[in-house]
Amino acid sequence: MKKLLTTILSLGVAASAALAGDLSLTAVKVSDKLDTVSADSALWSKAKFSTVDLYPQTAIEFNDKEAIEANKANKGKKVQVAALHNGSEIAVLVKWADGSKNVQGIKCTDTYSDGFALQFAGSTKKAQPLPYIGMGSEGRPVVVHLQKATEKVYEPNGNKDVSTQINRQQTGVFGKELAEYDAKVASLANTDFERVFVGEGFRSLTEIKDKSVKSNASMKYENKGWTGTLVRPLKDDYISASGTLPVAIAVWDGAKHGRNGLKLLSSWVAINLEGSKANNAVVAEATEVSKGDAVKGKLAAETNGCAGCHQIDKSAPAGTMAPSLVNIGGYSTAAYLRESILKPSAVVVPGYNRNAHANTPWYTIEKGKRVSTMTDYSFLDKGTVDDIVAYLKTLKVEVE
Fold it and tell me: pTM higher than 0.90, yes or no?
């Protein structure tokens, strides 16, 4: 019986590894202007839709009991993605199911909104691994477009109109005059929560406020699901697409206290610009299926003590000595996993983990830079590294 169970496990891991490749999709070229494209635009009938899998981001567990409980049984989610371009702009549409509409209000601090984000690699001309998803990596910047579902939010300081910064109960007016005051405030209110950030490593994410990025994002809820759209230039001060644009997708569920790192996340997706020569290096990295043996990789990971610091199985206690790897195979490319094994200080997830013991920090500071306390496994032979990568790519929950 034990031998039979081992064989079944081996077949399951091998099958998962065979399906571990990520994908590329095509941005259909159109001649139309795209700056005002939204979910309802007829132009999307020309697009080619692809399915992209998103996985729960589980590197660091939140210190929020209610959030942990709400997300403990999370599965992956399939989203529909399409893209259009006209040579100077790109429009991306993301459609996902969500049984509850959660809109950020202004009356409570413990309610959260649904939302989505698209992350673009800053530059892909230099031959190097794509940036870490979420924050970018040193020397490998990313641009993140965030859109949240919000009610009308009045921000008087942004309008510098002091006459409307008074609570309506303190205006001293009634009836028609109060209605006129309410209408004026409503006309100044902002219903669009769109933010753009640039990042080049953890704790470097910075909002771009100088209007140097011209973008237009929106969200629409209908039929128990959201459709999010984003339009931005193919080239500006932050990105320069050349045939292929690497994009990562994230969605938040406000009903499950989703915010910050509590989200569903894709790996890098290579969007090829129709009519342009694809960047084969980027496509190859985004779609790579490890040539290693996942079964041997599982044994190699155990032999080299990976589980001693990392949480690998969801049934194990949350790791406090290193980031959790529970869904690492869902939102990481094989290239990133390989880099993490051979050069663990290339990307260091921030700590110190507040739940960790003071004697087990994730990194040290040397000459102003974070140096991972993880063992440098560059002594392993290439075959063993490939095997471990193949195994890590199988670490992901079921997709709904």
Answer: no
